[in-house]
């Protein structure tokens, strides 16, 4: 098989797998990437039988992982919008997208998100070059900020908590007092999530698959997935009629451009900062810009896809791994550092990413349209209960019985801010506090 | 009164306490060198052979741990008496340093020497079968010196194994206890045992 045809086939296959992982709440692409790494030795005969011999099996595995991560970042809007059950990277997207659903425009949210993800992918692929020049020679920003990274993370944490826009407390209180109460409550949620993040790393997890159990799987499934499903189940009894063709509002081009710009910038920034995932990036975006629901969906969807591209660039530039998918790529591929002209391997992977993006756009629109028409025929609470059962089963398989306890505690912590009337952003303390502890303790 | 909020806060606080108790009671997981990257920022126990030891300016040690055909750097904040060849078990946090995964060991008590280096336990068969494991290490072994195939060899007839030895070989064939370093010749693509001393010895069981 011709080398390019082989890569295109792989991009399509990765997009299909990513569509499945994106649709299944709590099955994060990082989890799947670990499984893929374990199966690389088994891939060689399959690739040989399929005529894919132009590159090493390890390269095909890396390309597949990248295609899956790109596709996952497109499709995960569907459970976020239709079920209110996102994975961690789509966590903050859930409210605006779910509001669209409750107005009858669930597919509009999916369509907006898919188009924004594709635009972010295209823009990010071009911006990889300026990204290199900015971080590496001639500007060399990455080395300059190395010493103040902990401070940046601390400021980011402060922004996430003190950017809380809501007010809580009795109506008799002054607006300032209610705002202060919201910030205090957000700080408490941030610290509780942080304590949770510190503790779960040492909980003895043992799954039933031959892959290392990650405490983040039950933790993020609980905080952002199960908590949202529980909240949806309590608050929503039926789904209104869904319009597939009609649009309820027109997103101005300038608003879309601003949302895209903020999303891509945040996605790039987060790929530079250690340990911050797209959940934190989405939190930051939500803190700095409060546009309408449509613009919010554009910016938050852009973050996730841009982040996937820039994470790959960080691997080639500085051998830094900023996501589970990139850790998996690094595990299977001998990466050649990008100093002069871009390495051939990186260019090929970016091309695979673009092809996977095209396939993912079509898949997201197709699946989104197909499912939204059937959503009303399914008992909504029954569907949500099935999602919770699925999440629990996934957690047991990957992390064992103690993983369920981590899931339950995460769900309880995730429900609290919603019931208090706060954003879910402070829950990213689960990632930020352990990073700050690593820097300073 | 929001009962859902009360239940969630109660479960959250109680659950955090239970998780904390579980975490404190649990031993760090023992993982293979290959799986270390999957445990980023977590505390793990890793076992392997010391391939090299270097003191650091801060008074600690930088150790290269080998096992399963892979190697892993470890930074020990406290200096611990270690020798290349020791089989050790270390417990520390997984972190990245200059783009490479390493284990950061905070205290000397987190380093356990499972099997101290004992060169007499390095049979020729082990050198021949897993040469990368002993690469660069000072090793003491015993075997028959012989000339064959236009090269010098140290062999273990019982195990049917042999390693190529460099010059400074003894003039007579026979059983020797040998101390030296296993090296790799890039150009020729082969492992060569550079013996420093040859001590005649009796054959095992003689």
What fraction, in percent, of the residue positions of chain B are helical? Answer: 10-25%
Helical content class of chain A: over 70%
Q: Beta-sheet strand percentage of chain A?
A: under 5%
Side-by-side strand order of the widest sheet of chain B: 2-3-4-6-5
Which ranges of chain B are low-confidence, i.e. pLDDT below 50, for 5 or more consecutive residues?
none
Which oligomeric form is depicted? heterodimer
Number of helices of chain B: 3
SS-based structural class of chain A? Answer: mainly alpha
Order of helices and strands of chain B: HEEEEEEEHHEEEEE
**Overall average pLDDT of chain B:** 85
Radius of gyration of chain A, in angstroms, nearest whole number: 21 Å
DSSP helical segment count of chain A: 18
Radius of gyration from the alpha-carbon trace of chain B, in angstroms: 24 Å
General description of the model:
The complex is a heterodimer of chains A (441) and B (206). Chain A has helices at 3-23, 29-49, 57-75, 77-82, 94-102, 106-135, 141-145, 149-162, 175-200, 216-235, 253-272, 278-288, 293-318, 324-332, 344-375, 380-399, 401-420, 429-440. Chain A is an all-alpha fold and 441 residues long. In chain A, helix 3 packs antiparallel against helix 14 (324-332). In chain A, 73% of the residues lie in helices and 0% in strands. Chain A is built from 18 helices and no strands. The relative contact order of chain A is 0.20. With 206 residues, chain B is an alpha+beta fold. Chain B has 3 helices and 12 strands. Chain B has helices at residues 3-25, 124-129, 131-134; strands at residues 30-31, 43-55, 61-67, 70-76, 87-97, 100-105, 111-115, 138-148, 151-156, 161-165, 174-185, 190-200. Chain B has a 5-stranded mixed barrel. In chain B, strand 11 and strand 12 (190-200) form a beta hairpin.
């Amino acid at each position: 098989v011709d080398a390019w045809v082989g890569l295109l086939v792989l991009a399509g296959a990765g997009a299909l797998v990513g569509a499945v992982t994106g649709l299944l709440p709590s099955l994060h692409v990082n989890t799947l990437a670990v499984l893929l790494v374990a199966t690389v030795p088994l891939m060689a005969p399959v690739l040989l039988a399929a005529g894919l011999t132009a590159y090493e099996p390890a390269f095909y595995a890396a390309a597949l992982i990248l295609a899956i991560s790109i596709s996952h970042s497109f499709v995960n809007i569907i459970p976020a919008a239709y079920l209110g059950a996102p994975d961690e990277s789509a966590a903050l997207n859930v409210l605006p997208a779910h509001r669209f659903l409750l107005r009858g425009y669930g597919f509009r949210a999916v369509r907006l998100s898919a188009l924004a993800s594709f635009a972010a992918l295209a823009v990010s692929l071009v911006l990889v070059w300026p990204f290199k020049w900015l971080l590496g020679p001639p500007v060399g920003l990455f080395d300059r900020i190395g010493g103040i990274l902990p401070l940046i993370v601390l400021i980011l944490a402060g922004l996430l908590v003190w950017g809380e826009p809501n007010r809580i407390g009795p109506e008799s209180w002054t607006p300032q007092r209610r705002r202060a109460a919201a910030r205090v409550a957000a700080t408490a949620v941030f610290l509780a999530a942080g304590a949770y993040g510190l503790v779960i790393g040492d909980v003895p997890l043992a799954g039933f698959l031959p892959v290392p159990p990650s405490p983040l799987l039950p933790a993020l499934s609980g905080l952002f997935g199960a908590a949202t499903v529980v909240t949806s189940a309590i608050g929503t009894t039926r789904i209104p009629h869904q319009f597939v063709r009609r649009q309820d509002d027109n997103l101005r081009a300038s608003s879309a451009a601003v949302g895209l710009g903020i999303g891509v910038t945040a996605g790039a920034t987060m790929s530079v900062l250690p340990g911050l995932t797209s959940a934190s990036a989405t939190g930051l975006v939500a803190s700095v810009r409060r546009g309408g629901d449509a613009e919010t969906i554009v910016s938050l969807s852009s973050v996730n896809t841009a982040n996937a591209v820039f994470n790959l660039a960080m691997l080639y530039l500085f051998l830094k791994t900023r996501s589970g998918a990139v850790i998996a790529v690094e595990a299977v591929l001998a990466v050649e550092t990008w100093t002069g002209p871009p390495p051939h391997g990186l260019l090929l992977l970016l091309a695979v990413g673009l092809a996977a993006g095209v396939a993912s756009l079509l898949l997201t629109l197709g699946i989104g349209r197909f499912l939204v028409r059937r959503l009303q025929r399914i008992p909504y609470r029954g569907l949500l209960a099935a999602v919770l059962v699925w999440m629990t089963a996934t957690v047991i398989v990957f992390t064992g019985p103690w993983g369920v306890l981590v899931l339950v505690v995460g769900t309880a912590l995730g429900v609290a801010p919603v019931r208090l009337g706060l954003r879910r952003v402070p829950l990213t303390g689960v990632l930020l506090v352990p990073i700050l502890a690593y820097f300073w303790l | 009164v929001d009962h859902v909020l009360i239940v969630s806060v109660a479960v959250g606080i109680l659950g955090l306490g239970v998780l904390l108790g579980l975490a404190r009671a649990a031993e760090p997981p023992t993982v293979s060198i290959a799986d270390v990257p999957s445990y980023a920022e977590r505390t793990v126990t890793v076992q392997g052979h010391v391939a090299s030891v270097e003191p650091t300016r801060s008074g600690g040690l930088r150790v290269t741990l080998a096992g399963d055909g892979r190697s892993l750097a470890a930074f020990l904040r406290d200096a611990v008496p270690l020798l290349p060849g020791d089989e050790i078990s270390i417990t520390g946090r997984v972190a990245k340093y200059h783009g490479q995964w390493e284990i950061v060991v905070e205290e000397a008590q987190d380093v356990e020497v499972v099997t101290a280096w004992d060169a007499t336990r390095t049979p020729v068969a082990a050198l021949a079968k897993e040469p990368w494991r002993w690469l660069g290490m000072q090793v003491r072994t015993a075997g028959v010196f012989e000339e064959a195939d236009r090269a010098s060899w140290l062999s273990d007839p019982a195990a049917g194994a042999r390693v190529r030895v460099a010059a400074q070989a003894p003039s007579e064939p026979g059983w020797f206890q040998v101390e030296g370093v296993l090296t790799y010749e890039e150009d020729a693509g082969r492992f060569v045992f550079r013996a420093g001393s040859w001590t005649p010895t009796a054959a095992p069981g003689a």
